[in-house]
């Protein structure tokens, strides 16, 4: 694992869970070029670690991520269109890297998630938020738009919610974020770690290759036509049934014991 300027990457549970933490609390974990570079590099590396059951993404301090750094925005105002295009494509690549990461990604939303920060939440598979968290797609207030994050956000919250929240830029609560599907659970701040741990425990009790197959199904099947989905889903289950995990899972079920991928004590 490489060294990073603005994030840390830690492993736990016999290297089966990784935690990626944004470490710019003084600016509410806002993005700059280095943050985008660090996150892309980290998730690219983590994608190759076959032993991972999951990755937690969170922020240091009271915020999850406030989106674009103010100094970055000042700099972009003097960029040419070509420079701004290049900068935006780096963010697009980051979001897609997290979105298609083979193992599940949990957003531990410890506080404010604005603009690109809310975009990070949208590319995670499981999003658990503190009830104190606040969200916004506030780009319109700055004369711009939540363009690069929009494909992922709209898939989560739907067109009807995007139409109002994109144009108003209004702040909204964690409860409203849950109601529209941006986050999956909202808990009191003091219970956030317990809620994340519960999700981690679920992942650790699931077979790692099967987890990845399940994520791939969720990402891809909805966009397939009937014949493509028919073939892909049939091939997926056939391969899993004859694989080592499928065989072990069935034996463990019949023998009324925990499967081999569950560590003792879990």
Automatic annotation (TrEMBL):
SUPFAM superfamilies: ClpP/crotonase (SSF52096)
Alphabetically ordered keywords of this record: Isomerase
Cross-referenced InterPro entries: ClpP/crotonase-like_dom_sf, Enoyl-CoA_hydra/iso, Enoyl-CoA_hydra_C, Enoyl-CoA_Hydratase/Isomerase
GO molecular function list: isomerase activity
Similarity-based family: Belongs to the enoyl-CoA hydratase/isomerase family.
Protein name stated in the entry: Enoyl-CoA hydratase/isomerase family protein
Organism per entry: Ktedonosporobacter rubrisoli
